[in-house]
Amino acid sequence: MVIVSVSMDLALEEGQTYAGGLGVLEGDKFYGAGRMGIDYAILTLFYRGGYVDYIQHNNELIPIAQKQSIEFLDKLKPLEVFTIKLKGEEVTVRPWEYTYKSARAFFFEAINPEWARVLTDRLYIENSLEEKFYKCAFLTRAAAKFIEDKIGLEKIDYIDLQEAYVALLPIILPADDLYRLVIHTPGPWGHPVFPRELIEREFGSKFVSPQVVLTEIGLSLAQKAFVVSVKQVDIIKKIFPHYVIKIKEITNGIDLDRWMAPEFRRLYFDGALDIQSFKMIHRGLKSRLLNYLKHLKNVKDEESIVIACARRIVKYKRPEFIARFIEENRDLPAIYVLDGKAHPNDPDGIERMKRLYDLSKNHSNVFFLPTYDLKMAKTLLQGSDLNVFTPFSGWEACGTSYMKAGVNGVPSLSSRDGGALELIKDGVNGWFFGKDIRELIDIYTDPRAEEINREDYNGFRSRLLSIIKMYQEDKDKFYEFGLEAIKTFTPKVDITHVLKEYYKGIIKS
Question: Can you give the CATH number for the domain in which 140 is found?
Fold first, then answer.
């Protein structure tokens, strides 16, 4: 029997078909399922221009389309084209297949007519709300056709909808008890809203409300729904209280083969990792990171603590915390590596990204990498000394950067949010700051947000100063946090455990 996952993005080792955490998580599940021998099929779109990169030109950051690598294209197998109806017209779809052991990824590309081709040009980048709707509709109809004709409903155990972009799939392809919805964020971008006229015109379904929230449709049609951390149950049940009986949690994880340094992985699973071997391996991984940074500019003090802040740049993740800390503490012996991208249509995110970029130009110990990708993420999260994780409490569904850092002996300083609450033991394998807020406070309009940010920053600053001091004065004590992070994170975050939770009764323990 087949497990089907439908997602707008997917991060494989090759290719530019992802934007952030959802795609990386789906990639980790894909590789984990392949190694476990699961018949796993993920359906997504083939984006000719990827998501976005930023190039530095005349001291500005310019957004550009991404190019798909020859390495990625060579691994794609073209399958027989098929047609779907969209806007009342025949649209030709080219499926591309990527395989890894027992797992298969199918990328759907719109070939013609010309207006439809734009739907698979870029990921999450559209020129209008209508174009965004038809991108969702294209994946929905292509997935329905492919499932029915090429996989077969009778061969499927589950169809998991990753976020609500294809929440109308159960309407056009009914299947009793197969559909499940996975909610990956409380943020509005994960709950697309479209005018009912668009849905009625394309799918024939009539709705009472003039604006239709696809997550509402997904929750009503799915037999079950999941959120991706224990805390998110409290958050999402307040947003969708009428679906509380359907919602349960499965906390995200990571693919250890993909993210954990082989040196650590080997010693950990052999039961041979101790403080001496930990320090030796960490020094080697840090040296690799520093050598990369030296290609960008001079690294003055290689004995300084290396602090990583790497994630999608958006308001709720609060990159201004680390930026303000750097500005207020210019003379600290620390190296800061700041990475991430803002959505090109997010002016607020662009401004935050420019602030980080300006810091890197004006501070010799600050590095900003706007072309952050999986390869760089591995180098950074394996080779840093400390990871900072600063989302506004209640807004982070789970997060995984602290997991990837932790299994490599890099402890995190984290706000009290997401899955970090299930893994970090304050003062043992990492550190917390701020409040644990169990509601989705509107960070754009609620006057409480400013006061919370002020209090949280003070806690963040105090904690980070004490961590840097510990690193300077007692490295051995600091390294104990890293070793403890490996020992406590590794058995809990393995993606194989996550897959077994999602597919109980199908996957044998």
Answer: 3.40.50.2000
CA 352: distance to chain centroid?
A: 19
Nearest to 264 by CA among 30, 482, 29, 35: 482
* pLDDT-based confidence at residue 292 (cuts at 50, 70, 90): very high
- Annotate 419-483 with DSSP letters as a single string: THHHH--BTTTBEEES----S---TTT-THHHHHHHHHHHHHHHHHHHHHHHHHH-HHHHHHHHH
507 inside domain: no
Same-domain status, 16 and 104: yes
Q: Which two tokens stand for residue 159?
A: 């169809």
Mark whether 202 and 261 lie in a shared domain: no
Average pLDDT of 53-67?
Answer: 92
Q: CA 214, 421, 395, 245 torsion: positive or negative?
A: positive
57 domain residue, yes or no = no
Instruction: For residue 77, give its domain range.
Output: 2-51+72-253+497-502
- Is pLDDT above 80 for 260? yes
Q: Which amino acid is at 406?
A: G
Do 205 and 265 have their domain in common? Answer: no
Output the pTM of the full model.
Answer: 0.97
Q: E strands of 10-112, at which residues?
A: 40-45, 53-57, 60-64, 77-78, 82-86, 89-100, 103-112
Amino acid residing at 276: Q
For the CA atoms of 380, 382, 384, 385, what is the dihedral angle to 10 degrees?
A: 160
For residue 56, the model assigns a pLDDT of 85
The one-character DSSP state at 106 is E
Calculate ∠ Cα 195-26-198, nearest 5°.
Answer: 10
**Entry field: residues in the chain:** 509
pLDDT reading at 66 higher than 80: yes
Same domain, 29 and 166: yes
pLDDT of residue 108: 99
Q: In this structure, are residues 331 and 468 in contact, taking their beta carbons and an 8 Å threshold?
A: no
Mean pLDDT across 276-297: 97
Contact 54, 371 (CB under 8 A): yes
How many angstroms separate the Cα of 465 from the Cα of each of 429, 458, 499?
17, 11, 39
Residue 60: phi and psi, rounded to 5, are: -125, 160
